[in-house]
Amino acid sequence: MKKITNYIITGILLISTSCKKDFLDRYPQNSISPDLFFKSESDLALYVNGLLSLPGTDEYLGDQSSDNLATTGNVEIKSMMTGNPSSQTISGGWDWGRLRNINYFLDNYGKADVVQEVKDHYAGLARYYRAAFYYGMVSRFSDVPWYGNTLTPGDSSLFKPCDPRALVVDNIMADLVFATQHIREKVPSGTPNLWAAKMLYARIALYEGTFRKYHPELNLQNTATRFLDSAKAQSLAIMNSGKFSVYAGTQADPNQDYSALFSSQDLLRNQEVILACPYDYSKDPRSNSNINGYLFGDYEQSPTRDLVQTYLMKDGTRFTDIPGYDKFLFTKEFENRDPRLKQTLVFPGYKRASDATPYIQRLNKNFTGYHQVKGYANSTDNVIAGSIDFPVYRYAEALLTYAEAMAEEEKLSQADLDKTVNLLRNRVGMPILKMADANANPDPIEAARFKDVTGPMKGVILEIRRERRVEFALEGYRYDDLMRWHAGKTLEKIPEGMYFPGLGKYDMTGDGVEDIILIDKSKDIPVEGAKEKNSLGIPLVYYKAGSFGEDVTVYLKNGTAGGSIVTETRARDFKEPKYYYRPIPYTQVALNPNLKQIFDWQ
Prior knowledge:
The chain is built from 22 helices and ten strands. It has 602 residues and is an alpha/beta fold. The chain has a four-stranded mixed β-sheet with strand order 6-7-8-9, with no helix packed on it. A two-stranded antiparallel sheet has the order 1-3. A two-stranded antiparallel ribbon has the order 2-4.
């Protein structure tokens, strides 16, 4: 599940300008007297707004744990697959402070002298936050203690064992039922309303339903349908509300409308956005969405060639069906593809606002050569770059949730595809997904990736998964999707980058003119003024190329004989089912011996 509790972004009453909280930082719950504070609706609103916790633009860095990105960062799952993890080395995530603040409100909100509808609305918001918190815990640890009330330091429940996943998730579902029955539709901008609650409900239900279906180690497969039914019901309610639609600009431009969702300074009025995290750098410099320095291929992360190859051709056929596709150069890879590819990654001919000429891909050790444009603010104005809103929930998610849940239950029809997946394809001018064609000819590459998918809906399930990967690429969804689909082994594949057939000169901007040159490690890069120039009179950019570990800048799979860029070589081992979960930190088990590790964690 794409978690909504990852980030707490500072401020509270300036909710119209950013996703913020500071009330509980200034007045922690243990200093608030319930007899003095919980009196009025304004008291309830102040406290609950202090719980506001939304994902921001950091989510554009969230795919580093997945097969969408190569990373030089210290990413937990990568360290696990290449090391010897234990409860002493994997020690994060066991933090209950947020839950204590939520439960404190739920224990005391009833004291307010307000009508029941007011109480229920704010209690619904608190339970929404509790559901989000607990699902983050369940998706990490599976079995965890359920605490429905505030605990005091001497409470014996502090030493209780973990409750079973099934019990905890049932309590999460109860929280979400209450939230979706009582949260108001009209709320302050940038805060969760009824439809946000329904979207979270659908997201969690889809996660749990598919996780149970594809994870036999839980012995919960016979309960999966109940959650898939809930995912369908909540997403369909959003679809039938008539309040949301797939965004298209006034001129309906398939080459820009998708990317506009990730470069807008005002998503609060966008018809596709169910909930947005707004930023306004001009009003509050602490509210800064600018992550340009992390995105453009120069710091820590870079998109993988596997992601590039997942996008279909413009005519709807599979890129990977083209003979020799695995040896296409960068410029050819972007020809006649799903328009979302160029709206997600930097493409040949892309211009940055600061440059007069097209950008030439910068190559570097341990990076793929591909650069991310989704989430990148292409502006030289710091106020604009720092004021790009983030779409927390998009209508697109409701559509794909419904389609996936229907397909997993083998109830999907072409009419269902036409009102879900095909609306997203229509936005970018792609041919529609035809269920009969997909099921008659499943993609062999996707089938190898997801070996657990079987049955009459196999082909269309694989295509819905492709659609989800493409539509939500680099928004932080992919790792959780791979986990719930029982596809952890996918992460054993070491990320690769652009293909070069060997040493020589290459066009990187798509104009047919060479821009870079790869030379042997034994040669020296000429000084400025002595570098060879292309036909436009511009000096070539030089790189030494060779095998991984050599004193070169570009690592190629076959060294000077060419191949895809290699980002690393250390073998990865995803241990199943162990690595679908995390250990309870060793120090916590020492404090409470009733906590037991699962799936061979020590």
